[in-house]
Amino acid sequence: MNKFMEQPVQSGTGSAGIGGGSKKSFNVVDLKQYFFIVVKRIWLVALCFIVSLSVMVVILIRQIPEYQSVATLLLSRGLPLPVRLKQEEMELILGDYIATQQRIIQSSLVINGARERLNLPGDEFNQKYRSLSVVPIWQTAIMAITVKGLDPVFCADFANALAEEYLDFKAGERMDTSQATVISLTQQANRLHEELKKAEIQSLAFIRENSVVGIQERGNVAAEFLGSLSRQAATYRNQRMLLEAQQPLLSQASDEVVLATLSYPIQIGTIPVPNSSMSTSSVNSVLGGGPESLIEYGVVEQPFWSALKRKKAVLEGQLVSYRKKYKEEHPLVKETVSALQETDDALNVELEFALRQFYSQLESLSIREKSAERVEKEWEDQALEVSKKMQEYRNIQRNSDRLQGLYDLVFNRLKEVDITLGIEPESVRIMERAKPPSSPITPRKLQSLFMAALVGLGIGLGLIFGLEYIDDSIRYPEEVTQGLGIPFLGVVPSANWDPEDLRAHILANIDQKSGLAEAYRNVRSSLLLGKAKDRLKTLVITSAVPKEGKTTTCLNLAISLAQAGSRVLMVDADMRRGELHKFFGLEGGRGLADVLTGQAKPEAVIQRSGVPNLDLIATGPFPSNPAEIVLRPEMNSFLDYARRTYDKVVFDCPPVMAVSEAAILASMVDGVITIVWAGHTSKKLAQLCARLIRERGAVILGCVLNNLEFSRVGYYYYSTYYGYYNYDYHYGKNEAGKRV
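The structure assignment produced for this chain is given below.
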């Protein structure tokens, strides 16, 4: 039996879904579980389905049929313009162009024009008209004008009227644009023509006043003279600088070096320093004659310089020769010394003359340089004046040329506009006229009903799984071990007890072959064969909250233990509302409360239940302080007596979350069994109950999942087993609406 009951737990553990099992791959068991979750609340899906369909039917009944008609326009380019007349700004970007045409068709100007074409009163138009959309057909230059309304003929007529009004608008736009362009260009041409006349008059007046032809000639002459004078001044400056550079060097050199240097002071192309006897024509001839001309006219080199120099050398040689032969008083020596002195005097004269010529030449070059610069400055002023006049004349000419160019451009553009008036750069025509539709577009009854059905099913399924998700109750055996962390002892199916006959709840009075009887026997086997079987003498049966079925479970578990041959004492420890004695038809006036208060011995309150091996101690009178009574030493004495006298002692305790004595009593016995109502008890309350029991030092033997309705979907793998016994007990409600 135990082995069989463990199989559902293992199967449930393998499911990863509502049962809270470990996450594993999706399998058929998961699919079945989701299916039974839906079937469990199929009424909710059916309700949402019916409500959705009903709402849609009402909407369809109240909805007025609408019609739709479409007219299409073809947007294309017109005849190509000649290459000379084609302008870059006339190239149209297709996307921007189409978007612009959409806005034009949807504008109030076109719509109002189309309304006037229909010649309908405003109220009638507003009553029939619903909406307008203008969209390009995908990847084409075709524009679709779609009109929705309540009258099919009105939709077609209004769509066609919009297309015709748009064509008239485009034609008027082209005509207005061309006329405005012609007027603007004509005004600009007239203005430019007047300005051009003024510029020409100004140019002629300037020419007459300033003699532009003579100015140009004077400018050329001034430029030529400026160039010549600039070159001459540069030549004078160069020669002067050369002479000034030679001046400090000559003061340190010997006479021979000075004379040798001054013999050739000017190179080819230099300007000579004229003597007073030299005429202007002679100077001009010297300028191009070179060193030979300078020597000839004695500017620098003296005519006798070479002869004197040669003579001095001969005399010095003779003097040396004479002195070797004769004494100083010899006539030849004296004569030679005298001749040598004369020669030196002549050379000094030549040297002094050359130095004078050098300084004269330097001063002459300075004068010539300054005079050339002064003349150059005068010609430069005249050239600047001429240049200024020419610049004014060129400015007048440029302004005239600019006005002439603008006038030609505007005039040519005016001619092009005249030529292109009959050429359309773009073409728009009606491709298909709108026709009255044969059927309305709304309401579409079948599609609407189908969508309403889908919406209803979706909402219903969403509510089902939403309720399943927020359901915090413990519904499956695997949730006991995984959610509460305590062992699972077994499940007890629901039974249809007779609320008027409490004896029908007793296990001994039901069919021993039923699944209900087998469930209690399975719990008994879990206790007797568990790890704590050797030291298990006393146990408490409790629950987290009231009405979990713990009294019935305690009663039948005690009976099943007695049927197994154990002497069992069943104690009703609910000293607030205990009713365990009523199941056997016994008296509850004397019981546990009398023993704990010292008013009776245990032997005096024990009653025979009528079931073999099973005795009962009722609650006795309900005390006002049951929690304090349980803590008295008499409680330990009673437990010692019960352990010595009986094999098993079973306490039916009140809920742990409701009263405090339940947890106290649980800490005094060998073990505790908690009862959980399947699909009803909150997991958080059950967890809190288990934690309180453990904190009191009690040992939780396990949990019994009570009132498991196998007829409810979701428990299919348990119903497979218990359906074999074909037993259909169900808990019922008594007249007060409470469970025992």
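Interim note for the steering committee: DSSP finds 24 helices and twelve strands in the chain. The longest strand covers residues 67-77.
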